[in-house]
Automatic annotation (TrEMBL):
The lineage of its organism: Bacteria, Bacillati, Bacillota, Bacilli, Bacillales. GO terms for molecular function: D-ribulose-phosphate 3-epimerase activity. The gene is rpe. It is an enzyme of class 5 (isomerase). Pfam families: Ribul_P_3_epim. This is Ribulose-phosphate 3-epimerase.
Amino acid sequence: MSILIAPSILSADFSILGEEVKNIERAGADWIHIDVMDGNFVPNLTFGAPVIRAIRKVTTLPFDVHLMIEKPELSIDQYIEAGADRITIHAESTVHLHRTVHYVKEKGIPVGVALNPATPVASLEPIIHDLDLVLIMTVNPGFGGQQFIPYSVDKLQQVQQLKKSKQLHQLKIQVDGGINAETAPLVKEAGADVLVAGNAIFGAEDLEYSINVLR
């Protein structure tokens, strides 16, 4: 399976966000990763459905919407209507994870579950058969530009083993946080299928080269 690259627009220049999205599409990105933060589940506040709707007009790339918000079940519809092609929610953000996952699935949207660094992989076992994606946070969520947490590699390996043992061949394993030319080989070897990167891509002079280095 080829590695997918999903640049995180959290690291883009918001003053020219539409152009930034067009540029990474031309450079060969596979998905656009959109970190929605509410200032409650994580300390930062980013963008919501109106921004997603606006940039939906400038690209055909899939929108990989990562909801770092409390009680995502209350606002999932607005992100789907704005143009989300897949939605990832945090296991820690809702007390009704199974219900919320199935609500997204009923809408015909691929669904993922994200785990914070301190959340054990075992928490996925009751729900993993229902998922299209598992996102392992390799930093604590809330801010871009953080340092990669080394024990994340062990968690990735655990998810990969769980995927194999359950024969979930279509399940994608995604990583988000501190991904660059040095850490990308580590997570790919551990089983990652999708790499989210922000500064390593948007901070580069040559976008196409930066994407290919990660791939």
